[in-house]
Amino acid sequence: MSNLETEPEELVCPPSGARGIEILEPRDVPLGGPRAMGVRRTLPQKARSLIGAWCFVDHYGPERTAMDVPPHPHTGLQTVSWLFSGEIEHRDGVGSHAVIVPGGLNLMTAGRGIAHSEVSLPGTPAPLLHGAQLWVALPDADRHTDPFFESYTPAAITVGDATLRVFLGSLAGSTSSARVFTELLGAQVDLPAGASVDLDVDERFEFGVLLDTGEVSVDGVGVPVSHLAYVPPGSSRLTLTAGATDARLLLIGGVPLGEQIVMWWNFIGRTHEEIAEYREDWESGRRFAPVTGYDGDALPAPVLPPIRLKPRG
């Protein structure tokens, strides 16, 4: 998915180190204008920009709408697509063509540069779209790797009363085969009303809990729907407790990245000059192989801000 903001904010993301659970509020972002599908964005924001190497979290739906995101570029990151309902057709510049379906991970590694499109499959009435789009920042040593695409369908496992689907990394004996470049975790957790589960986790990891539906608390701290709870490193156990209704959530985490990154539009780099070069390459038809099979024009890049992109704080 693209960041379609016409004036995207430049972000330099320092390593995080705050103690205690934080609740990050979402902000509404229209994709493609006020009549297009809206998303609720919890990462990045000024209070916190990274959870492990996770750097971007959009939560959308359920809504009967059609997604139509034209070809657009990415650098220095991996896109993680996860659906609860609906189907989305993916095409990219390395020739991948896949249909994203609920319960299946679609992971695109942009590396030095890739372009892709995402379009809802046609249907009457409009499809019920519901899911999340997340980005993972690639570490400096791997961010210029060749781009590639892969899919993975995790098996559902049971831990106490909880049902887990581990789509990245390892948890509770389940390990994803999808390739990552830092130590990461990504999983869907379903909890019936009133149930609680204790998860043994890596104490080096920091975590994010995005509540999709229902009610849940994280180590006793309540999380509103569509909000993201941040849990700092230092604990080897994470307790999730459902309220009066069934809960469904995404659990993300990882070892703190320990690097500063510059995010602007759909690019991740390390300097102003890199971001400007990526933008110029996209506008000039360099670096990014074209996406075939999409009926329409590619997405133009926004204008760079009139000041130099530089670190904050």
Automatic annotation (TrEMBL):
Domain Pirin N-terminal, which positions?
39-136
Q: Which InterPro entries match?
A: Pirin (IPR012093), Pirin_C_dom (IPR008778), Pirin_N_dom (IPR003829), RmlC-like_jellyroll (IPR014710), RmlC_Cupin_sf (IPR011051)
Instruction: Enumerate the spans annotated as Pirin C-terminal domain.
Output: 188-286
Pfam families cross-referenced by the UniProt entry: Pirin, Pirin_C
Similarity annotation: Belongs to the pirin family.
> What is the name attached to this protein's record?
Pirin family protein
